[in-house]
Fold:
Amino acid sequence: SNNFNYGAYHSLEAIYQEMDSIAGDFPDLASRVKIGHSFENRPMYVLKFSTGKGSQRPAIWLNAGIHSREWISQATAMWTARKIVSDYGKDPAITSILEKMDIFLLPVANPDGYVHTHTENRLWRKTRSLHPGSPCIGVDPNRNWNASFAGKGASGNPCSEVYHGPHANSEVEVKSVVDFIQQHGDFKCFIDLHSYSQLLMYPYAYTAKEAPDADELDEVARRAAEALASLSGTQYRVGSSATTVYQASGSSVDWAYDNGIKYAFTFELRDTGHYGFLLPADQIIPTAEETWLGLKTIMEHVRDHLY
Amino acid sequence: RGKFFGDQVFRINVRNGDEISKLNELMKSDNLKLNFWKSPCSLGHPVDVLVPAVSLQPVEFFLKSQGLDYSVTIEDLQALLDKEDEEMQYNKEQERS
Structure:
């Protein structure tokens, strides 16, 4: 309905405008909700997709862009937002999911970092918070959650790329999401989108110990990876985060799982290394299209296994 | 804006625990200003590291002297960034028109 190009990378401002456009184009289905603000006082917006007309329903949280340089993550989230509103009423799967549940999509979980990648340093990963006594800036927002905080796989050095921050939820961006999810109280699924490695993982990241629901999560993740591969053959590896990549404490998905959100997954989108964080824009739509198949498989499972 | 002229990304294939330890040593050397895109963690997982132009020689020397297997996955990081920037500018102009 407008000239937003989903096959291109965009500034934060353009993304926020497009979120507003989606909400304006589909007022009965989508709304843009401010859930907080960043360290540098930029708003944090989610798109809420709901057919519940104000009633509280169980919900799914889709989180993207927590590491700012992983641009395919934010771009995939925006394509996904448009896909949800376009397919509602046409695709029986997404229609039935939204008849039962709400979906909340956060395309830019780290707005300051994202702006920094556009204006100063394309390869910035962390937030932009300041630390008294250190010349180094930012916290890794995926080490800042209250899940074995400051344990293995995170650093106490503010200059590290995996600095966990002074305390859990010290980053206002993380706290905004935590507060929103806790106030809502009925999230059943939390999915974090990252890049790059082509992995689909589930808790735990902070320990190699098996999660109580590991068998079910593994089965769902394998089906999701198969669905994803069915489009163009992109191969994903599946497993718990700690056993598939490395041990990392304070991650979003571990926090979600430990706080009762059983269906907690992390995607690492394309590619396998030739471009790293600089995935060319012509791969945005193919990546988003295949990811959608994986996301839909997970969301359908959640719909059919509400607890 | 940060520039990355002459910077390269290396992929290092880790074959055993000893090689992981060697790479952890490399990670600790602050003066090389390395940016590990994928850290040394476990076997079967390649390590990707952004090496600034000024550190290319010492890093290559280190990898070769330690017998570590590596390849260059991004030859010219700035060229890739310039291309990305051009595409974004082009896209903005298209939207305006």
Q: What stands out?
A: Chain A has nine helices and eight strands. Chain A has a mean pLDDT of 97. The CA atoms of residues 196 and 276 of chain A lie 6 Å apart. The beta strands of chain A are 30-37, 43-49, 59-64, 102-106, 187-195, 199-202, 237-240, 263-269.
